[in-house]
């Protein structure tokens, strides 16, 4: 996906689902989804982001499972917030909007 250009004659999407896990590959996939969303004829497509992890067995690594799950949930929420900001910034740049 890195360096891949979105074909201008590709069919536009109205909804795109992207699964992320905080890896560089997932971030690139999200960036690609943003570029695909721009192909919609009248407005950018809706991008839905899913963050899912497989929690370790309870008590693994000395961390109680409920605390670990809560930590993973917060990590996912932070990542999704960062991706939302990234999408808003990229869409604004592509639309020619400047910020101060």
Automatic annotation (TrEMBL):
Entries under Pfam families matching the protein: Usp (PF00582)
Ranges where the UspA domain occurs: 13-91
According to the UniProt entry, the coiled-coil residues are none
Signal sequence residues: none
Q: Which InterPro entries match?
A: Rossmann-like_a/b/a_fold (IPR014729), UspA (IPR006016)
Annotated Gene3D superfamilies: HUPs
- The residue ranges crossing the membrane are none
Q: Which CDD domains match?
A: USP-like
Please identify the protein, giving its name as recorded. Answer: Universal stress family protein
Which source organism does the UniProt entry give? Answer: Candidatus Nitrososphaera evergladensis SR1
């Amino acid at each position: 996906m890195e360096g891949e250009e979105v074909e201008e004659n590709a069919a536009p999407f109205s909804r795109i689902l992207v699964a992320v896990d905080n890896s560089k590959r997932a971030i690139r996939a999200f960036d690609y989804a943003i570029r695909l969303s721009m192909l919609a004829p009248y407005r950018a497509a809706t991008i839905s982001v899913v963050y899912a992890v497989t929690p370790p067995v309870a008590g693994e690594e000395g961390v109680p499972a409920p605390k670990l799950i809560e930590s993973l949930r917060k990590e996912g929420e932070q990542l999704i917030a960062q991706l939302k900001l990234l999408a808003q910034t990229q869409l604004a740049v592509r639309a020619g909007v400047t910020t101060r």
